[in-house]
């Protein structure tokens, strides 16, 4: 009996050690130590919790702590993450955002439910976000002045390449009409104060504007997010007909590189440092008095190293006494230096690393145009 048990444990470990099972099947986190014995995939602890919420589809066990029946181990051996991917991810649309372990709960949960519960990607064309090129619905939008969330009608049009929202359901004209190529959207549950909170950022007169929305239904808000990506993808396919699908995919909406509080001083570098909320969205560093402000108080363009941009730790020796946070950093641009302070050394290092990731990249022709606009504006 003991010998049979030992052989079963060894068989489980052998399947577990296969290279295809080295990452979580759902979020890509290394060293998954749970598995679904009804789906045959290896998953991390966090994703196992989501699987546990759909017991009609997936039943999970710990690979380290639970007892595994011989038949369950054999099922795992016959399947694994490679077979799971070929089955449940066979036809994912190019624009669909596949979350990682760094993403929020609603994105990961809806990805898992799409794969295994709804089987959205098992056949071509099965995953449909809208019909006749238009998605229409109601989202709860935060008021710019009063901070209240109120229901607003939103319309996303593939034909017109825009996102509109209306203050009243029967309104003929939209409050705002946003071109799809200037939109970015990121999930921000902590900032919005709702697990399904979404921040939509767009450019108006080359200045950044934020809209904060949510929907009570996780499936609905994730579908809005991917629908915006879909319309953006179709728009860019027309705008850049020679670009490959993967090149266009890389231009779709992106997560912010870094957010958080820093202190800043003014252009004369004699003003007292003030605490502001900063967002680094690729080459735009924006700062706000409050994280939920609709408009940025200011923006800094972060170019490439070959064009005279750099970041370094510390402040000029002449800067004394005007700041309360001890960990400084300086962004050097061709026109002026920008001085910031961070509360902790780890925050300072994270900001410097984020800036360096941007500065190391060469600038595109579109980014040269944005840089020129910043110089004219300043």
From TrEMBL:
A cellular component annotation (GO) from this entry: plasma membrane
Gene Ontology MF annotations: GTPase activator activity; phosphatidylinositol bisphosphate binding; phosphatidylinositol-3,4,5-trisphosphate binding; zinc ion binding
Matches recorded under PROSITE patterns: ARFGAP (PS50115), PH_DOMAIN (PS50003)
Spans traversing the lipid bilayer: none
Keywords of the record: Cytoplasm, GTPase activation, Metal-binding, Repeat, Zinc, Zinc-finger
Residue ranges of domain PH in the record: 132-233, 255-360
Gene: LOC109316651
Record-annotated Arf-GAP domain positions: 6-123
Domain of life: Eukaryota
Signal sequence interval, chain numbering: none
Subcellular locations according to the entry: Cytoplasm
Native species: Crocodylus porosus (Saltwater crocodile)
UniProt protein name: Arf-GAP with dual PH domain-containing protein 1-like
């Amino acid at each position: 009996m003991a010998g049979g048990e030992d052989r079963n444990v060894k068989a489980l470990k052998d399947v577990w050690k296969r290279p295809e099972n080295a990452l979580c099947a759902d979020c890509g986190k290394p060293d998954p130590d749970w598995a679904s014995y009804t789906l045959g995939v290896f998953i991390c602890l966090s994703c196992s919790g989501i699987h546990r919420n759909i017991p009609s589809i997936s039943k999970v066990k710990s690979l380290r702590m639970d007892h595994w029946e011989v038949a369950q181990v054999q099922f795992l051996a016959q399947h694994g993450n490679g077979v799971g991917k070929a089955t449940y991810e066979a036809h994912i649309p190019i624009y669909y955002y596949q979350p990682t372990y760094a993403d929020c709960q609603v994105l990961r949960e809806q990805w898992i439910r799409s794969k295994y519960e709804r089987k959205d990607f098992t056949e071509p064309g099965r995953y449909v976000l809208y019909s006749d090129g238009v998605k229409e619905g109601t989202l709860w939008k935060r008021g710019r002045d009063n901070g209240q969330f109120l229901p607003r009608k939103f319309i996303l049009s593939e034909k017109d390449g825009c996102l509109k929202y209306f203050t009243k359901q029967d309104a003929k004209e939209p409050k705002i009409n946003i071109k799809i190529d200037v939109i970015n959207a990121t999930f921000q549950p902590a900032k919005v104060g709702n697990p399904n909170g979404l921040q939509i950022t767009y450019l108006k007169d080359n200045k950044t504007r934020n809209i904060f929305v949510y929907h009570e239904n996780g499936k609905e808000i994730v579908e809005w997010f991917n629908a915006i990506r879909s319309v953006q993808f179709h728009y860019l396919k027309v705008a850049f007909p020679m670009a490959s699908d993967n090149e266009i995919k890389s231009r779709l909406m992106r997560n912010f590189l870094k957010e958080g509080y820093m202190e800043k001083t003014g252009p004369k570098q004699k003003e007292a440092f003030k605490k502001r909320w900063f967002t680094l969205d690729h080459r735009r560093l924006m700062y706000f008095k409050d994280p939920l402000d609709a408009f940025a108080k200011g923006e800094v363009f972060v170019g490439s190293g070959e064009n005279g941009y750099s970041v370094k730790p510390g402040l000029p020796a002449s800067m004394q006494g005007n700041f309360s946070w001890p960990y400084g950093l300086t962004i050097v641009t061709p026109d002026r230096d920008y001085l910031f302070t961070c509360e902790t050394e780890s925050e300072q290092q994270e900001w410097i690393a984020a800036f360096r990731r941007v500065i190391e990249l060469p600038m595109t022709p579109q980014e040269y145009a944005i840089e020129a606009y910043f110089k004219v504006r300043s």
